[in-house]
Amino acid sequence: MIITGTLVAPGDKVLDSIGNYRMGNGLYEANRRIFASVAGYVKVYGHKDKSDNLVQVIEVRRSEDQLENELLPYDGAVVTAKVMAVGLRYRHFFILYLRDHSRFAKCDIISIGDRVYKKRFSALLPKKKLRPLEPELSEPFKNFVRPNDYILAKVCDDAGIKDKFVLSIAEDELGVVLCRGKFGETMKKVDWNTVVSTRTGKTEPRKMARVPQKCMLPSDLKDSTS
Amino acid sequence: MPTIRSNLNIPLTHLSRIEDDQMEAIEMDKRSATTFRPLCVKCGVFGAQDGSGYAEFGNTRVLAQIIGPDGDGKWEEDHAKITVTLKGLENEKQIAEYRAELMSSASSVIFINKYPGKVIEIEVTVLSDDGGVLSAALSAVTLALAHSGIEHMGLTASVHVGMRANEDYITDPSTSESADTLGGVTFAFVPNLSQTTCVSLYGRIPIEATKSLLEFAKQRAIAIVPVLHKAIVNSIKEKQ
Amino acid sequence: MSSEVLRGIDPLGYLTTFFREGVFPDGRGLLDEQKLVFKQGECGGVGSSVVSTQGVTVSCTIEASVSLVSDGQLINIQIEPSQQLSEKEAEDFNNLLLPLFTNGSFILRENLRCLDVNGKALPLEWQFLITVKVLCLEGNLLDAVVCAIGAALADTKLPSIVLNHSEGDESAIEKSQIQADYGTIHKLILEEPLMCCSFGVFVDNDSKKKSEILLMTPDIEATSVCRATCSVVIGKGDRIALVRERGRITSFSLLKKMCQITAERRHKLVEALRTA
């Protein structure tokens, strides 16, 4: 019987057979036996699965803090990312205006919480995850995010794309936190869907993240008091 | 003022030594066939780096560091890319050979499918070489992997065994002790799955003797397992 | 939550708030010293050391060879490039450290003569190849390397040389006439220990005076927002052995302060070595 809290090294046998447990992180099955795949503590906890049954999940984790456990951005984590480019553009030379057929924005994940990653991870932000209700394909990306914007996004699980992370800013608390205008000036928030350039006064549409009032960037604070 | 130039440059190790009485009197303590040299292993040497491990067998000291998994814009496969760099050895051929063994051993135990599109770099630095470098390096890498939190199948226990002409075995020989051996083997395996990841034979081992040599090496490798296990478990305790 | 988000997006803003209060994000005071740990004699060669300080760990090994007395260069420093240190930067540091030997800050040239069993100097000299391996680089390399070289030199043990070549003989000395006697070991006579400290100069753009804030041993994150960095090496008698700056330092008083802090730190080191 494995007791919760036992210290295991990779390769240690945790269970003889999976039995009634569900397998969590840090374990793998070989020859019907369950072994640890990382070094850490064994944890057994109850969890309500999709059909609302209470199941016992067993896993091996290094620490209580989920951020420390995960080496990479994990499913459901809120990360800070920078929009690098907006997908493929397809120019019709026979039509007078450019059609924006892009379906993805390419982003770089910079940090999670206060942990800044040493190397940035490539991620994609699909058009269908810009808003709680999927936007029309014809609505261009630039109404929501533009290149060089910093966004707060959530990591999703997308079976189709294996090598890059998939982000979403559909929820209210997610979206743009910092953006700069054409001349590098900071853009100030007008409302949750518009920003204004502090230099030219022109407004631009963006999907802003609804962060609590007290969490404002120093530049916003400075502008509001001046 | 004219400068004086000299071409004479003799490394200290090439100078003939004056054998004094003290040197004659020191008899190499005949080690038993099964004891290892004094060893010291540590899991997690640096706080900052993702994963690090240190293995010391007698005067052979090897440090391994793991950086990753990191994103890499160019690598778009659905599994991780593993790179190994080995520093600190002079012999180029040896570096290439050991690098290949380390790469094969690491790639076979890491669950590369769990890290698609990511790069895992393993940097091995040999601080001092006194025989058995490959097996010390394999031990250091396994400790670094355990420290880094990258998912893999289990500890890799590795050992270097030499065989003399009279079929005597010697465990973990130093460079001077290996001088009179016919050949030897570096043997590494994953105990929980009972699978071998490295069998590197060198020298002139007769075919009939190979099987018992490998058996002996496996037994010696099993003896190392509790040491590695303890080092890993201690490193987690220290983190708390 | 927001301040954490800032760290990745706007490190300058994030760090400014801390520096204004006089601390680093991890709570260390701006001019607080870091712990330095060193271990001698573990890495082969005639002398070696491993030094670890503030996220930087280096190992230093000294290999010796015998040569005739000449005016040529006796010391060869080789810092090995690694994943964190490019070849060009390593070459840069090599060229920076070499003058510390040629101007006699570490050891005087006459103390590199080979000595015989009785301690008499022979017409032969030691040539050193100093190899530095960078094991971990999350801060300033120079601090650790200067200390590592000093510690390795202090650890160096050289055999006495027996020369079968009479003094009056004008012919060239042959290899076969030189033998090493490990029965009598000599240690090197070194100059007083050197101390190296690295600093960063941070300019607070938002404050009215645009004040310059001095940071001691900044880490990589802090160095990226500094306008200038400076490393000072102080030797015997509070003499400046080396100053290396990157960026623009406009204030003389800051330079003076840096030298003062380094000299103080050096005194503490000398005291510690004396009482050890």
UniProtKB/TrEMBL annotation, chain A:
Its main location: nucleus. The keyword Metal-binding does not apply. It is found in: Nucleus, Nucleolus. SUPFAM superfamilies: Nucleic acid-binding proteins (SSF50249), Ribosomal L27 protein-like (SSF110324). InterPro entries: Csl4, Exosome_cplx_N_dom, NA-bd_OB-fold. Keywords: Exosome. The keyword Zinc does not apply. It comes from the Eukaryota. One of its GO terms (biological process) is RNA processing. Residues 7-44 form the Exosome complex component N-terminal domain. One of its GO terms (cellular component) is nucleolus. PANTHER family: 3'-5' EXORIBONUCLEASE CSL4-RELATED, EXOSOME COMPLEX COMPONENT CSL4. This is CBN-EXOS-1 protein. It comes from Caenorhabditis brenneri (Nematode worm).
TrEMBL record, chain B:
This is CBN-EXOS-4.2 protein. PANTHER family: EXOSOME COMPLEX COMPONENT, EXOSOME COMPLEX COMPONENT RRP41. Signal peptide: none annotated. It comes from the Eukaryota. Residues 36-151 form the Exoribonuclease phosphorolytic domain. It comes from Caenorhabditis brenneri. One of its GO terms (molecular function) is RNA binding. InterPro entries: ExoRNase_PH_dom1, ExoRNase_PH_dom2_sf, PNPase/RNase_PH_dom_sf, Ribosomal_Su5_D2-typ_SF, RNase_PH. Belongs to the RNase PH family. GO terms for biological process: nuclear mRNA surveillance; poly(A)-dependent snoRNA 3'-end processing; rRNA catabolic process; U4 snRNA 3'-end processing. One of its GO terms (cellular component) is nuclear exosome (RNase complex).
UniProtKB/TrEMBL annotation, chain C:
InterPro entries: ExoRNase_PH_dom2_sf (IPR036345), Exosome_comp_Rrp42_subfam (IPR050590), PNPase/RNase_PH_dom_sf (IPR027408), Ribosomal_Su5_D2-typ_SF (IPR020568). One of its GO terms (molecular function) is mRNA 3'-UTR AU-rich region binding. The keyword Chloroplast does not apply. GO terms for biological process: exonucleolytic trimming to generate mature 3'-end of 5.8S rRNA from tricistronic rRNA transcript (SSU-rRNA, 5.8S rRNA, LSU-rRNA); nuclear mRNA surveillance; nuclear polyadenylation-dependent rRNA catabolic process; rRNA catabolic process; TRAMP-dependent tRNA surveillance pathway; U1 snRNA 3'-end processing; U4 snRNA 3'-end processing; U5 snRNA 3'-end processing. GO terms for cellular component: cytoplasmic exosome (RNase complex); nuclear exosome (RNase complex); nucleolus. It is found in: Cytoplasm; Nucleus, Nucleolus. Coiled coil: none annotated. Keywords: Cytoplasm, Exosome, Nucleus, RNA-binding, rRNA processing. The keyword Transcription does not apply. Belongs to the RNase PH family. This is Ribosomal RNA-processing protein 43. It comes from Caenorhabditis brenneri.
